[in-house]
Specification:
Elements lengths: L2 H6 L2 E7 L6 H12 L4 H10 L7 H18 L3 H17 L2 E8 L9 H18 L3 E9 L3 H18 L4 E7 L11 H9 L3 E6 L5 H10 L3 E4 L5 H9 L3 E4 L1 H7 L10 H6 L4 E3 L11 H12 L3 H14 L4 H17 L4
Parallel strand pairs: 1-2, 2-3, 3-4, 4-5, 5-6, 6-7, 7-8
The protein binds N6-methyladenosine-5'-monophosphate and zinc ion (ZN).
N6-methyladenosine-5'-monophosphate binds next to α4, β3 and α11.
Length: 343
Amino acid sequence: MDLSFLKTMPKVELHAHLNGSLKMDSIQELGMELYGDNSDEFLREIKHFVEFASGNDEDKLNKCFQKFQFMHKLTATKEGLELATEKVIRDFASDNVFYLELRTTPKANSNMSRRQYIEIILHTLEDCHKKYDIIVKLLVSIDRSQGHQVAEEIIDLAIEMRNKYPSLVKGIDLSGNPAIGCFEDFVESLQKAKNAGLKLALHCAEIDNEMETQEMLDFNFDRCGHGTFLTSQQVEQCKKQLITIECCLTSNVKCGTVKGYDLHHFKYLFENKVKAVICTDDCGVFDSTLTEELLIACRTYGLNKEHVYGLSKNAIEASFASKEEKQVMLKRTDEYFKDNQDI
Ligand SMILES: CNc1ncnc2c1ncn2[C@@H]1O[C@H](COP(=O)(O)O)[C@@H](O)[C@H]1O
Ligand SMILES: [Zn+2]
């Protein structure tokens, strides 16, 4: 598979965390814009981001979650959040992502409320739509380590914002360190979101926790983030319930939940015709792009152009875009494959 074919291909990204998607160059730009200068310490800290974490698997996952704290400091002001959101969208657009579902955890601090956090992002998404020729939707994240009360507040806000911006606010994500908290605590809030018509894209089976995974699947949702430790029976359940699985190759390898690309569960899902898509998760923290993730998938699992087309179609279908938007995306994708048959 040709790198330039994947690079110029119009792509759909369904699983991207805002703060994790800030790339190193963009963090440097942001530092300059916010502080006027980047201290040596700042530059040293950035360098640590893209280094492979060492230690046992649990350490690797925990270290990954520590990295987000640095980004959170940069996006703790209105200006920082606005600039960071724009840079993330710009970087996805420059990788030819033409449809992006960005997810983020609303944060309250002395500079802004959770409501303001969401509104700043929504205004930036609107501004970026024309500027970068990209459709961007928002998924509101619940951090499982913050407990059910915060989750309840966030779901209420998400419903309010969806009513105000129905074409932008599409769904809910449950994320955060998978080793902390339990799904049961969020059932009530997630049910409320479901009843309100919000879609659910939940992190599920990112670590080995068969019971919780089963509870989640029985609750049912729309898209499964990672799905690394789904049993074969649970994979069948996903198939039956039409759940698409968001596979984040480099994220899983760098966090140590998957031992190598060749051992990634995408291979099993692909071979068993389970609806799966390739996503970046945190392209900043994991120093990757959607193009690179697709290239890894092609090289590791022997995907050809037809397979890549299938993945693009899966992503369009599983997106939370409107029917009309999906038609436009499909048309553009079809045209690209038709025009580039010989590459
Ligand atoms: C690596 N696998 C992962 N598993 C679970 N949650 C993850 C994650 N990667 C990121 N996040 C979640 O997204 C937040 C950063 O973006 P936002 O501040 O929300 O924009 C992290 O703090 C974590 O809660
Ligand atoms: Zn994720």
